């Protein structure tokens, strides 16, 4: 079990605390369309305010590629955070140097300061030690609450920890606890549901989970490659020809390990993703020659839901179909509902899967919806995330 120190395990009173947050919010014309990520960081920020710390926040926003981009400045984020905290949030146009030091000196205890977009500095993604040192000079303690970037070794996620004691924020703590719980101490039966477009994105996850689960469910576009590997004609469906061999090997591995592996029995098919007509449901071995599989069928959804119902733990990554289109969203919806109704410990990872869960309004019924897409995938692959590795261990 991964056990890292958090803000609660160290003294933060009257300290200058540098907090790496993930404020990478969707932004268009200065308007934030979804502030979920800002809200997710509030528990840590409020805790620091309540403990009279000087809270210095740093995040990236978009992909400025080491250059100052006016449309990617953090000002709208500072404004929104101020509204959520009901408190003024200070904001400066730099991250390091004399102006940053001065701003921190001028802060009162309990104040919150947001630094500029850290990816305006090319040194950030290079994990430049000099830049990390300058960031660290602003504070006495480093708190990483940006789980979404924990799989990246950057100056503000990893570099600073060389110069400051480093602990997890509340969001990071919850992510580590929930993801470790399912990987290392699952309540059985442990069921993993994997979907999404491609097998190639999830090979590492499948491999790692095959060593741990009792049942592996494969749906979405990636199931097509498994079906084809088993000799089923999937017509124009998305298939990764170079992964057919792998799909066979993974099924062999499942058999050896005694893992029950479930593939779709029936599918929703159509001539194309854009089709409005010619949509139908067929057994997987009867896909018409001019059609493609775009969702799991009703029987499959029932089969998968039954497994979810009796599970002790469920991990889900990747939608069951092209859920962005209403016509191909039913399989994903059925599974989301089954998960919401299940008593199992449920953990959902992946950006698109989390979006599907949110769209259905069942986020609250899931034990944990991870805020990190890539980061949660790498965690499920069994990799050590650099942004977590640098945090102090609990003794
Ligand atoms: P996540 O972001 O949750 O990890 P992925 O990015 O791996 O999920 O997969 C999501 C994508 O997979 C969606 O854009 C969805 O349209 C696509 N997808 C799911 N099923 C199919 C299918 N049968 N054919 C083509 N694309 C699919
Ligand atoms: Mg995705």
Summarize this structure briefly.
This protein is α/β, with parallel strands linked by helices. The protein has helices at residues 36-40, 42-50, 75-85, 98-106, 122-125, 129-136, 170-184, 203-210, 222-229, 244-257, 298-309, 330-341, 351-359, 373-380, 386-389; strands at 16-20, 27-28, 31-32, 54-58, 90-91, 112-114, 141-144, 166-168, 190-194, 215-218, 260-262, 266-270, 280-283, 292-296, 313-317, 345-349, 368-369.
Structural class: alpha/beta
Strand order of the largest sheet: 5-6-4-1-7-8
Number of helices: 15
Overall mean confidence score, pLDDT:
96
Number of strands: 17
* Helix amount: 25-40%
Summarize the biggest pleated sheet: 6 strands, parallel
Unreliable residue stretches: none
Q: Which ions, cofactors or small ligands are bound in this entry?
A: adenosine-5'-diphosphate, magnesium ion
Number of domains: 2
The geometry reads as: elongated
Gap between N and C termini: 13 Å
Question: Can you identify the CATH class of the largest domain?
Answer: Alpha Beta
CATH homolog superfamily of the largest domain: Phosphoglycerate kinase, N-terminal domain
How much of the sequence lies in strands comes to: 15-25%
Q: Whole-number radius of gyration?
A: 23 Å
Instruction: Please identify, by name, the CATH architecture of the largest domain.
Output: 3-Layer(aba) Sandwich
